[in-house]
């Protein structure tokens, strides 16, 4: 399985998602939602999930959905997967790249 890296921006996105989810729906839902995102990252890295090419935003960028969030990633050297952002579906994606 290729190596998986999560950028500082994506980590910040995850912290914001976790904070908002906990404040709104509680700790159990936060853990469940962040767990679903972590599972999706594993599926992307293993090739189980193939994302949609997002060249309209940036060349070499792919995305896939996890509930209300879109995970943006690219494949780097040695087939390394780099998660760049995790953005809510209502956000202006291009603005965040």
TrEMBL record:
Keyword field contains Iron: no
Alphabetical list of InterPro entries matching this protein: ParE1/4 (IPR028344), RelE/ParE_toxin (IPR007712), RelE/ParE_toxin_dom_sf (IPR035093)
Highest rank taxon of the organism: Bacteria
Keyword line: Toxin-antitoxin system
Family from the record: Belongs to the RelE toxin family.
Protein name (database record): Toxin
Species this chain originates from: Halocynthiibacter styelae
């Amino acid at each position: 399985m290729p190596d998986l890296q999560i950028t500082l921006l994506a980590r910040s996105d995850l912290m914001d998602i976790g904070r908002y989810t906990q404040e709104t729906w509680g700790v159990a839902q936060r853990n469940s939602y962040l767990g679903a995102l972590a599972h999706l990252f594993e599926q992307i890295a293993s090739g189980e999930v193939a994302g949609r090419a997002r060249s309209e935003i940036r060349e070499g960028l792919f995305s896939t959905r996890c509930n209300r969030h879109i995970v943006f990633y690219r494949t780097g050297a040695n087939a390394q997967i780099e998660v760049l952002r995790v953005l809510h579906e209502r956000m202006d994606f291009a603005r965040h790249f």
